[in-house]
Design brief:
This protein has helices spanning 39-46, 119-123, 126-139, 156-167, 181-187, 246-249, 263-268, 287-293, 306-317, 334-343; strands spanning 2-4, 14-15, 27-37, 59-60, 64-72, 84-88, 102-106, 110-112, 147-151, 171-176, 191-194, 199-201, 206-214, 220-229, 240-242, 253-258, 272-280, 296-299, 325-330, 349-353. With 356 residues, the protein is an alpha/beta fold.
């Protein structure tokens, strides 16, 4: 398992062995096949969560996992030995930490994994999928023909949110880096704005399909194919915006989903119509700006619970959303996995293979 005995950079990550645990009341013991890395894990490693947690060092890192139930605790009736499950075993939620061969997890924080994905893909889903479901279906309540701007469209949360938004018939604009433009277009984004370069591409007039191909043992990629002209969103002339920021290009949007934070959050108020909504994954947006622009603003704390996970499984098994695994590491290479998450700008998710 991967533990930290002090806070810091990747040098504090230690792969070690500790005695096996027993599941407590309303818990299951799971043999972990895979776990995934989230930016939250980096914040925990560096000590960024000390102000909101009284955790005692050492402890095991990691939240998202997928695996097989090995043992059930007292009062557990919805799971049995041999069930394939996924969820969050993060220590902040009374779990034992996902970067381990076995984890104890509360049944309130796990569900049967989607049938149509493998363990690595299932492990990539809990946080990012629950975040997108909570934001778009509960806070924003996104509807057909509404317009939404998604910041960080190529990231873990963003790439799921784009697909979910398109499934609801929304018009989707997304901000990305230049290398991620094609990836996000293939997810279905109608308008893609490169936040690093002084120009943004005009909306496309086609839709694309998505299917999976395993290129090698370390990386699972998705292949996209153009299928037909779009008829469900406005058509624009083939032009390029030059020397403009997203708030100068976009206007009258119903919603903004911000996974980036910083000044991006404040600038996002300008693209919303009156009565629109801004949901930020990076803290509570400025209430004074919300009042100024006459919009709603929410700072979301994602709940990875059984309800959200079951809903996510429905969406995955119905092929509404597909998770993209950018790269897979072994547990012994956990430092490389954290480094890639931190500076590699992955598309989708970084996964750590642990068991079979």
């Amino acid at each position: 398992m991967v533990q930290i005995r002090k806070y810091g950079g990747n040098e504090v990550l230690e792969v070690s062995d500790i005695p096996k645990s027993k599941p407590g009341k309303n818990q299951v013991l799971v043999v972990v096949h895979a776990a995934s890395v989230n930016p939250f894990d980096l914040a925990v490693r560096s000590g960024g969560m000390r102000s909101v947690s009284s955790l005692q060092l050492p402890f095991t890192l990691g939240g998202d996992f997928a695996g097989v139930v090995l043992e059930t605790g007292e009062d557990v009736v919805d799971f049995k030995i041999g069930d394939e499950v996924y969820g969050s075993a993060i220590v902040f939620g009374s779990g034992s930490g996902a970067f381990a061969q076995e984890v104890s997890v509360n049944i309130a924080n796990c569900a049967l994994k989607p049938k149509g994905v493998n363990m690595q893909e299932a492990a990539a889903l809990p946080l990012v999928g629950s975040s997108a479901v909570q934001a778009l279906e509960e806070h924003i309540k996104l509807k057909n023909n509404q317009k939404i701007l998604i910041h960080g469209g190529a990231g873990g949360i963003g790439h799921i949110a784009i697909q979910l938004a398109k499934s609801k018939g929304a018009y989707v604009a997304a901000t990305v880096g230049d290398k991620d433009r094609e990836f996000v277009e293939r997810l279905g984004a109608d308008e893609v704005i490169d936040y690093k370069l002084p120009r943004a591409k005009s909306p496309r007039s086609c839709s694309l399909s998505l299917y999976e191909r395993a290129d090698d043992s370390n990386t699972r990629k998705y292949v996209f194919s153009r299928i037909q002209p779009r008829t469900d969103s406005p058509r624009y002339s083939a032009s390029e915006y030059k020397n403009q920021k997203f708030e100068d290009i976009l206007s009258d949007f119903d919603a903004v989903y911000d996974t980036v934070g910083g000044d991006v959050t404040e600038r996002s108020f300008r693209v919303l119509k009156k009565g629109g909504i801004l949901v930020s994954m990076k803290g509570q947006p400025d209430e004074k700006l919300a009042q100024k622009y006459q919009v709603f603003a929410i700072g979301q704390f994602t709940k990875i619970n059984a309800e959200h996970l079951k809903r996510l499984s429905e969406l995955v098994d119905a092929d509404v959303v597909k998770v993209h695994v950018d790269k897979i590491f072994t547990l012994d290479a956990i430092k490389d996995a954290f480094e890639y998450q931190e500076i590699g700008h992955p598309q989708g998710k970084v996964v750590v293979k642990i068991g079979n």
